[in-house]
């Protein structure tokens, strides 16, 4: 099954930058506007709209997810991502313990075939990492392009409750 069969492509004309900007969180808007202007400049220079269209489609997806999940849920997810990013050098031992327990419970529920597939994926990703290649998902798409959920560099996001807790 192709990606087109899952979700038919939207016409480029339906990707209104103003509507996209209004759909994303206020904290994400400066990054969207900066990326949009850069893609416009590239399009003007190269006479190629590919980069601009890809950018608008990615941000459109973020806007759709924000509307589907709600602004509070989206903000909560981004706050959690910022906290993890800020504490990446000093991991929380309790969070690591919970993560290991979750992994163990999940692993126990997998069938033998699912475990073999998971191990094969881990080995493939390890080889890609060690070779300096882009790490891909099961469809061969680079991980960062599979389902982008954060298009703003985390160091650019600022939330009051993260500042206090961070």
Give an overview in words.
By secondary structure, the chain is mainly α. The model has no long low-confidence stretch (mean pLDDT 81). The longest helix is centred in the middle third of the chain and has 20 residues, at 50-69. 10% of the residues are buried. It has helices at 3-6, 17-23, 29-46, 50-69, 71-86, 93-109, 112-130, 143-146, 160-165. The protein is built from nine helices and no strands. Helices cover 67% and strands 0% of the residues. The chain is globular, with a radius of gyration of 19 Å.
Protein topology:
Elements: H1 3-6, H2 17-23, H3 29-46, H4 50-69, H5 71-86, H6 93-109, H7 112-130, H8 143-146, H9 160-165
Helix pairs in contact: 2-4, 3-4, 4-5
Structure keywords:
166 residues, 9 helices
State the helical fraction. Answer: 55-70%
Q: Indicate the radius of gyration in whole angstroms.
A: 19 Å
Chain oligomer state: single chain
Relative strand content: under 5%
- The rough form would be described as globular
- By DSSP (H or I, 4+ residues per run), the number of helices equals 9
What's the average pLDDT? 81
Distance between the first and last residues' Cα: 44 Å
Query: Care to count the β-strands?
Result: 0
Query: Which residues form runs of ≥5 with pLDDT under 50?
Result: none
Q: What structural class do helix, strand and pairing data support? A: mainly alpha
Give the H and E element order: HHHHHHHHH
Tell me about the largest β-sheet: none
